[in-house]
Specification:
The chain is of the alpha/beta class. It is built from 13 helices and 15 strands. The chain has 2 domains: 187 residues, 3-Layer(aba) Sandwich (Rossmann fold), CATH 3.40.50.2000; 150 residues, Rossmann fold (3-Layer(aba) Sandwich), CATH 3.40.50.2000. A 7-stranded parallel β-sheet has the order 3-2-1-6-7-8-9, with helices on both faces. A 6-stranded parallel β-sheet has the order 12-11-10-13-14-15, with helices on both faces. Strands 4-5 form a two-stranded antiparallel ribbon.
Length: 373
């Protein structure tokens, strides 16, 4: 008889975040439903320049506001969450999940607090991207010290898991919970015609930052023989820059501002191809759950698991020629786009969604905590 896998964590879970982005709320609510004694979440405010839309409350989740102290910037950025120990003392969790990021100065204290009480701490992170430049040796040592002190690691992606293992973390302590922003689809996506009757529609969803490379998208579309419509959904510190860039090189662009949850559905329904020309962007999984083919720049490894030849294209993040040639290829065959959209939907239905992600978290928690008994 096959061994039955536990579907819940029999205890109270504490979960530390630097900030609480609104797109994470559905995941944390789902995770909370699988913790028998509840989920207590600890998170603070972002820096103003980050333009992160944060969730203030989540059903069934107890949220404590962290006192975030932001220090320095760019590659030297650090954050101290002054009240993390008082949060732990008040909530008294049976297990703790922290962001596996050595930039957060209070996390080692939280780990020590839990270990002093013989309780387990898991890290959650994207992997170990290279560290270079000034003080790289010191920063690398801090990373290794933090990761080695954790009882387990949950990676966003297969690539991230491999990076943790290559750094020396035992494979048995590393788990993969594919990063997701949308639930398993409960209904099929809208049926779209295979015959083109007007310019095709491209959609971008995300924070408007320079690293999103929207300038390159506008310039590439301007070189296409048949030019698509582009809808930019999102807001951020560089919105004005991109609006001016579009006006100069490709005016066939509409900026609709930030949209979330059900507000996005009409845009997904009217879209033929979803595109993320720069790094980052968890919205690709949500677009796939709405039956869209995707063009995505390679980034932290999350994209590698989501985007496959059957449902989209992975491109280098800084290669305008690759972006242009991929757009030409993608837009040349509408019926193929529809088939790829169907495969995107299948992937999110069967493999990568919030529901399977939360199950993997519960599996990691139960594996690590039971190993101690």
């Amino acid at each position: 008889m096959a061994k039955k896998i536990a579907t819940s964590f029999k205890g109270k879970l504490g979960l530390q975040q630097r900030v609480l982005p609104s797109y994470r709320a559905p995941f944390f609510q789902t995770l909370a439903s699988k913790c028998d004694d509840g989920l207590s979440l600890f998170a603070g405010e972002p820096r103003q320049i980050e333009a992160i839309n944060t969730a203030k409350q989540i059903d069934s989740v107890s949220i404590t506001k962290a006192d975030n102290q932001h220090l320095f910037s760019k590659q030297f950025y650090l954050c101290r969450q002054k009240n993390i120990i008082s949060w732990l003392e008040e909530t008294d969790p049976d297990a703790l999940i922290v962001e596996a990021n050595a930039r957060y100065l209070s996390t080692p204290d939280a780990i020590d607090w839990m270990h002093a009480r013989s309780r387990k701490v898991l890290g959650w992170g994207l992997g170990t991207p290279p560290i270079s430049g000034f003080l790289s040796g010191v920063r690398t040592k801090r990373r290794i010290d933090l990761l080695s002190n954790l009882d387990g690691l949950i990676s966003y992606s297969e690539r991230g898991a491999e990076e943790y293992i290559e750094l020396g973390i035992p494979a048995g302590k590393v788990f993969v919970a594919h990063n997701a922003a949308a639930h398993r689809p409960s209904s099929p996506p809208p049926q779209k015609a295979n015959k083109k009757t007007s310019p095709l529609n491209l959609l971008f969803v995300g924070r408007l930052q320079m690293r999103k490379k929207l300038d390159s998208l506008f310039e590439a579309c301007a070189k296409l023989e048949e030019q698509p419509n582009i809808v930019i959904t999102g807001d951020g510190p560089d919105r004005r820059h991109f609006e001016l860039a579009a006006a100069r090189s490709y005016p066939n662009v509409v900026f609709v501002g930030a949209k979330f949850g059900e507000e996005l559905k009409p845009y997904y329904d009217e879209t033929d191809l979803f595109i993320l020309p720069g790094t980052g962007g968890l919205a690709v999984q949500e677009a796939m759950a709405n039956g869209l083919p995707v063009i995505v720049a390679q980034g932290d490894g999350t994209q590698d698991d989501l985007v496959r030849p059957g449902n989209g294209w992975l491109i280098p993040p800084d290669d305008p020629d690759a972006l242009l040639s991929t757009l030409k290829d993608a837009l040349s065959d509408l019926s193929r786009l529809r088939k790829m959209g169907a495969e995107s939907f299948r992937i999110t239905l069967e493999e990568i969604n919030i529901d399977t992600m939360s199950d993997k978290f519960i599996h990691a928690l139960n594996t690590v905590t039971k190993a101690a008994k």
